[in-house]
Amino acid sequence: DRGSRVWFPSKMSRSGNGDKVDLHDPMMEEYQERKKKWYLDVKNTPCARSALVHGILGGVAVGLLYFARTSVVRRSCDFAVGGFVIASLASWEICRFGRAKQRADVKKTVQVLNTISEQMAEGNGGLPATTTVIADRSPTSESESGL
Length: 147
What we know:
The chain is mostly helical. About 60% of the residues lie in helices and about 10% in strands.
């Protein structure tokens, strides 16, 4: 139905009778504000700063090495840009993977703590006698941990 289509650029919607209705949704306004300034907020974007620094250093290194071997400026600049892109993307992906792994570890830890809390509430006194939580957040038996 084309009459109820939402127009994002002007935040206007067409009602069933063809009149424009202004949509003052605070969430939509916040989304539009963030969408405008995402590229200005590099310092608060996780992994962005390190990816840019690694990309710049990688691009400069590749460009200088290529120039030292060939003495061709234009081709060296091409390699420098390629080095920047590859180093930035590699650094970005490695950092994001690490953050995802850390997030999964935190989620697992919260689940273990919730389980312990539930067991204490039931009166079991916490962990079962054969299980110990060690530094890597994985349950093992007491005989394996040496306790």
